[in-house]
Amino acid sequence: MPVEFLGIAATNDGSETTPRSGASFDKEYTLRLARAHEDHGWDRVLFAYGSGSPDPAQAAAYVASRLDRLQILLAHRPNVSCPTFAAKTFATLDRISDGRLTVHFITGGNDHEQRREGDTLTKDERYARTREYIRIVKKIWTTREPFDHEGEYYRFHDFVSDVFPVQQPRPNVSFGGSSPAAYAAGGAEADIYCLWGEPLAKTAEQIEAVKAAAKAAGRTDVPRIQVAFRPIIAPTEELAWEKAHRTVDAIKARKARGESVTGRHNGRARPENTGSQRLIAIAEAGERHDRALWTPTAAVTGGAGNSNALVGTPETVAQALLDYYDLGVDIFSARGYDLLDDAIDFGRYVIPIVREEVAKRDAERAARGTRNLAAVNG
Ligand SMILES: Cc1cc2nc3c(=O)[nH]c(=O)nc-3n(C[C@H](O)[C@H](O)[C@H](O)COP(=O)(O)O)c2cc1C
């Protein structure tokens, strides 16, 4: 199976190591960063969601109208919208982008952040609501007749949309989370299940949990798996490790100055979401895992989202990604700490190696399949 690469569609140049140099929505930078991804072999970029952040749907529409190939992953939190309205937003965006939209449904892993926009449900209730919401959005995308809905969280009558996605039967649904409630909801509804980068054995456990949830929901297929890392690459191993330590030192220095480095709990309070708790536990178990996974970047940010690094030369980092491909991962999410330059470097030096090796592996697998078939038939 071919691999895909997901980058970040940030709307400014800030990262954990560097405060942003301008406005939160820097129109020129937003387009420059997205274009760098399009020009350097990436497939798709994520427009993330935060309670105070610029509206990702409009940023995505802007980028889609300026670029021709880059696909869009739009993060969306159900608590901020009615599903009938959201389904039309998504369908319109799929039209603007000529069929390049995937929607990443965010349940929300932190009560305080959810309350900022008036959401008072518990996390498990939020997952149940997300599940109902996704089912409604899928139905609106694919139903030409008016229908009623009487659910636990939503009720409406006689609704039919007048705008439908370009992609048929519908755009893909992406989903993330590492708690049992997340596996249940995403296993049932997601086309793509997103995990944060963990050691291989722990990633394999999570993949099994997602597959089991999909089966329990009565599915005959399974979601594709995406895993996210923060690559730190340099021409030699030594230089890459120096860069890795410089990265963590820069984050620590910002924290020491009292700056917010993650826009969230800043690594102080214990995170409420299972995914971040897992990252902290993995960091406590050791700094280095497998071929190139390095956890101090997660430890220093309190396991804030995609935060485990892969450190080494492009060859080492590519081989590390291929280890995950061999587990069944076929979408890699990656972003550096210098968003623009790192997107260019990763696209130039890592993506081509991974694509070439995956093509070789797939060709060998196909040849083995043909030989086995010949043996059975012969
Ligand atoms: C790849 C990925 C991207 C995510 N993007 C966002 C985001 O943009 N905004 C947000 O608030 N949460 C985001 N999340 C958080 C999840 O949607 C979810 O709310 C959280 O991980 C739930 O925690 P759990 O591990 O306890 O199930 C993301 C999660 C993953 C795995």
UniProtKB/TrEMBL annotation:
Pfam families: Bac_luciferase. Residues 254-274 are annotated as: Disordered. It comes from the Bacteria. Keywords: Flavoprotein, FMN, Monooxygenase, Oxidoreductase. CDD domains: Alkanesulfonate_monoxygenase. Residues 19-330 form the Luciferase-like domain. Transmembrane segments: none annotated. This is LLM class flavin-dependent oxidoreductase. The lineage of its organism: Bacteria, Bacillati, Actinomycetota, Actinomycetes, Kitasatosporales. Signal peptide: none annotated.
